[in-house]
Amino acid sequence: MSTHPIPDWDPRDISVLGDQRHEYDEMRERCPVAYSHFLDWSLFRHEDIVNVLADPATYSSASKRCAVPNGMDPPEHTRYSRALAPYFRPEQMNALEPGCRRIAVDLLQALLARGDAEVDFIPAFAQPFPIKTLCTFLGWPSETWENLRGWTHGNQEVAFSQNKEAGAALAREFTGYVMAALRIRREAGGDVRARFPDITTSIMEITIDGVGLSDEQIVSVLRNWTAGQGTVAASLGILVYYLAGHPDMQQRLRREPALLPAAIDEILRADGPLVANRRSTTRDVEIAGRKIDSGEKLSVNWISANRDGRTFDDPDTVRLDRDPADNLLFGAGIHYCLGAPLARLEMRVAMEELLARTTTIALGANDLPRRHIYPSNGFGELPVRLR
């Protein structure tokens, strides 16, 4: 049995949660492999994290609960990932883009109709936009987004509180949404694909090694995709916050919208939306002089890795000419985010429409922005004025 060291830090301390980027930067330099009671081992350096991502045999993603495919290791992960990847091909994203854009336009028109009034960008746009887009993607009724927004928020709170009872209740709640969607299709009779020509129906028809996905596996897939929309919402808040503080960048992107994909990736490299992901060791390892026993849990800190000056010159500065190869915004290795094309589409469309329909994006004068806490690094509130 391993003997854990005295904790090096407490990720839930108010000093950490008050400015996560600064504290993770400090940990990277002071204690790049740190132990805490909350996260067990945490890695902060880009090089160490890339090494972990490149070695899934040693650093396992396997989960005790059904988690398809992010909670799987090869060869199981390979089979399921290959079956799900086609849903995010360019042709799928191209087909979704008009609907995604209509949702963005409708939300922005409602915001701009308020004139010069100060609005909270998070509940008014950042939260509903990606979840409404997901409902369109899945073929779910548009009103479902309100339920999914509440579930996404609750899911983030449970990740911080580690309240098992609340987590189980949220799991049952989400299962109910998915099972209702499956039941409608199963009871439709006749040609289900003709009546419901959508992604949900297609997922029900997936077979792997001749066996269809179980209901539990379908719930897991859709839970993973829905949770990802919370990260997109956090990203949109961070992007708007940055642009509000950098009017020159706003104008440049209005003049040169082709720069938006690079700008989005680079802004989110410097100020990432998601704090960390988990792995567990399958053998004894040593990282930066710290010995970690087999079976230990560790987290890879994306925010710190993407701000590591050993990899990124002047990491605080947003530079559109920076080589994106080392950016871990969507991870790396076999667990590179399958839904990255959807997230990129959503962020690009949202920012294109926001910049095209405004002359100025400014922070509100009356209320200060409020940051989220672990596992997010986005904003709980973001008062802005759109002109």
Written account of the structure:
The chain is α+β, with helices and mostly antiparallel strands. It has helices at 14-18, 20-30, 46-53, 76-84, 90-112, 121-126, 128-138, 144-161, 164-186, 192-195, 199-204, 215-245, 247-255, 260-270, 302-305, 340-356, and strands spanning 33-36, 40-43, 59-60, 119-120, 207-208, 211-212, 276-281, 285-287, 290-292, 297-301, 361-363, 370-371, 379-381, 383-386. It has a five-stranded mixed sheet with strand order 1-2-10-7-3, with helices on both faces. It is globular.
Tag the structure with descriptive keywords.
387 residues; alpha+beta; 3-stranded antiparallel sheet; 16 helices; 14 strands
Structural class: alpha+beta
Strand order of the largest sheet: 1-2-10-7-3
Task: Report strand %.
Answer: 5-15%
Q: Count all strands and give the number.
A: 14
Query: What percentage of residues falls in helices of 4 or more residues?
Result: 40-55%
User: How large is the radius of gyration?
Assistant: 21 Å
Order of helices and strands: HHEEHEHHEHHHHHHEEHHHEEEEHHEEEE
**Shape verdict:** globular
Measured between the Cα atoms of the first and last residue, the distance is: 61 Å
Number of helical regions: 16
Low-confidence stretches: none
